[in-house]
Structure formats: C-alpha cells, structure tokens
Amino acid sequence: MTATLSHGAGQSARTLTPFLHRAWAGIADLALYLPRLRRNRAQLTRLHAMNDHELQDIGLTRLDVVSAGALPPSHDPTELLASIVRERGSRRCGR
C-alpha cells in the first residue's frame, strides 16, 4: 500500500510540474508585457505631440500616428509605424 501511495504522490507531482511551469511563464510574460505596453504608449504619446513637419521628417503622417493609436493594447504600435517608414523608404529608393 505504501508503494501505491508514493507512486500516486509522484504521479501528482509530475502532473503538477508542467502546470506550475506554464503558470510561472504566464506570470513572467505579464510582468514583461505591462512595462512594454507603458513604454509603447508613451512613445505614441510623444509622436502625437509632434507637429506635422516633425512627423514628416521621420517618414510619418498624422494619420499614421492616429491609426497606430487605434490598435488594440496587445499590439505594438511602434512596429506598425516602423513598417510604414520602411515601406515608404523602399518606395522612395525604387526598391
């Protein structure tokens, strides 16, 4: 009977371990996500504060910034803006 109990306890521990790893990974992801979200939104706020000439200097328009701000919080608006700038730059260079 002791062997059965220890086997059962070992089975529980093996089943619980992957759950704990997934839970810990989820907590770590959340801990990294929140500061990233704040940083991305702060960068977007700075872009909103720029005038149209300043935005044009970095390859963006006011509409680009407004569109990036309309993305859901789970999306990084700076990735969208960077891809817009890259696309416009490649079109200007004829690539």
How would you describe this structure to a colleague?
Residues 36-64 form the YjiS-like domain. The protein is mainly α. It has one domain (2-92). The protein contains 4 helices and no strands. The protein has helices at 2-49, 52-57, 62-69, 77-92. Helix 1 packs antiparallel against helix 3 (62-69) and helix 3 runs antiparallel to helix 4. The longest helix is centred in the first third of the chain and has 48 residues, at 2-49. The radius of gyration is 24 Å and the shape is elongated. The termini are far apart. Residues 1-6 have low confidence and may be disordered.
| Beta-strand fraction estimate | under 5%
Mean pLDDT rating:
84
Order of helices and strands: HHHH
The count of domains is 1
Helical stretch count? 4
Domain YjiS-like: 36-64
InterPro entries: YjiS-like
Brief account:
The protein has four helices and no strands.
Write the layout of secondary structure elements.
Blueprint (H helix, E strand, L loop, with lengths): L1 H48 L2 H6 L4 H8 L7 H16 L3
Helix pairs in contact: 1-3, 3-4
Brief descriptors of the model:
82% helix; mainly alpha; elongated; 95 residues; YjiS-like
